[in-house]
Sequence to fold (219 residues):
Amino acid sequence: MILKNKKILFLFVLLLPASIKLLLDCSTTHCKKMPIYGQKLLTHNDTVYQKFNTKFLFKKSDSLVLHEIDSVQFPMYVIMFVKQQYITENFRLDAFIEYLKYKSHKIKKIPFFIATISNSNYINCFDKLFSIHPNVHKVYLDSIEFAKQNLNYFIQKPYYIDFSFMILIDNSKHIRGYYDSRYASEIKRLTEEFEHLKIKEFAQNITNTNKLKHKNEKH
Fold:
């Protein structure tokens, strides 16, 4: 009887991640798998999607320090490249700023990296805008690196995506979504899809752990 109960429990543990994945993929919000965007690269035996360099200049006090986005602390993150001409359009961040002011609890678990040119004449304004939000990190690049990184993140983007969109990067450093931060519906979609990826990652981790445990038990 005890042995039978153990088998049932073991079977339940094995099936739980698959059940979570099935429910998630068949939900009304996420009835399809999220796409992967970006450039495909040829390897010796396969084609893989481009991964991104996560080393940037971060402002520390009054100096700029070369820093890498910590993949352990920030396995997934959102990045946006703000060009100088966006200052006349409220940085194209209207809905995002509204969320920061009135709905910050809905996005406080999402790490945002907002990049701009380090020698731009509106850095003080940029600093004040995001100074009180610990999940919003300011990134400063020189003009050459800014242009290079901005282009890299939008290689082979859908034609309807503008270069000012926010970009969701998953834990494998692949692009999973583009979002227009001027519209509340887009920020809402971003929060939902970020959570969607987190749940899928959690389910995958459980599956991998169970497979490893099952393999060890056989030996």
User: Anything to note?
Assistant: The two ends are 25 Å apart (CA to CA). The longest strand covers residues 55-60. Strands lie at 40-42, 47-49, 55-60, 63-68, 77-81, 112-117, 136-141, 166-169, 175-179. The helical segments are 2-25, 94-102, 104-107, 123-129, 143-152, 184-218.
